[in-house]
Amino acid sequence: MAENIRVLIEEEKVDKRIEELGKKISEEYAGKEVHLICILKGSIFFTCELAKRITVPVTIDFMSCSSYGAGTRSSGVVKLVKDLDEPLEGKNVIVIEDIIDSGRTLSYLLEILSARKPASLKLCTLLDKPDRRVMPVHVDYTGFEIPDEFVVGYGLDYDQRYRNLPYIGVLSFAE
Ligand SMILES: O=P(O)(O)OC[C@H]1O[C@H](OP(=O)(O)OP(=O)(O)O)[C@H](O)[C@@H]1O
Ligand SMILES: Nc1nc2[nH]cnc2c(=O)[nH]1
């Protein structure tokens, strides 16, 4: 089956929104340091672009968990694949995600992370699909709310491809 991609959010629009989020975070954390947690692999592009636009001191750590196998559907079971290198105690932590869909990944991760006693813990996502939620998640910073469609680009993959697209696209299949 041939794969088609339709542009949903153009590169310029994504860049502009990330700039706005960077400004908002910089204002809200004025006089503090923020510790960004990049959830691999999808949020790597967003984390880099956002971090460049934050003007308060920034540190970054990485974590990886899996719930999506090959294809477009979640297995529903979240597993921690790579833990953080650094402790969180006393830090102003912002978890950076590319997308929140069912909410399973983030509700699992936020529970683990809040037990490590950060000074504060917030969540920032580039994309949110609220219609798909099965687990409640409080999101502090959202780039875009999108409809229930499978998206790729800006870090998001289909079978590990398309992460490098500089825009957000909707993937569909044709005979
Ligand atoms: O809200 P949920 O339904 O839990 O879905 C969101 C999760 O799915 C994606 O990760 P994925 O498992 O595709 O891994 P990847 O980032 O390595 O591509 C995304 O980065 C989130 O972590
Ligand atoms: N690539 C991709 N990964 C996801 N994980 C949860 N939802 C999505 C989506 O729409 N696209």
Automatic annotation (TrEMBL):
Domain of life according to the entry: Bacteria
Domain Phosphoribosyltransferase: 13-158
Pathway(s): Purine metabolism; GMP biosynthesis via salvage pathway; GMP from guanine: step 1/1; Purine metabolism; IMP biosynthesis via salvage pathway; IMP from hypoxanthine: step 1/1
Gene symbol of the encoding locus: hpt
Cofactor(s) for this UniProt protein: Mg(2+)
Name used for this protein in its record: Hypoxanthine phosphoribosyltransferase
Record has Zinc-finger as a keyword: no
Originating organism: Muricoprocola aceti
Pfam families: Pribosyltran
Annotated compartments: Cytoplasm
Keyword field: Cytoplasm, Glycosyltransferase, Magnesium, Metal-binding, Nucleotide-binding, Purine salvage, Transferase
Record-linked InterPro entries: HGPRT (IPR050408), Hxn_phspho_trans (IPR005904), PRTase-like (IPR029057), PRTase_dom (IPR000836)
Family membership noted in the UniProt record: Belongs to the purine/pyrimidine phosphoribosyltransferase family.
Enzyme Commission code: 2.4.2.8
GO MF term (any one): glycosyltransferase activity
Function, as annotated: Purine salvage pathway enzyme that catalyzes the transfer of the ribosyl-5-phosphate group from 5-phospho-alpha-D-ribose 1-diphosphate (PRPP) to the N9 position of the 6-oxopurines hypoxanthine and guanine to form the corresponding ribonucleotides IMP (inosine 5'-monophosphate) and GMP (guanosine 5'-monophosphate), with the release of PPi.
Catalytic activity: GMP + diphosphate = guanine + 5-phospho-alpha-D-ribose 1-diphosphate; IMP + diphosphate = hypoxanthine + 5-phospho-alpha-D-ribose 1-diphosphate
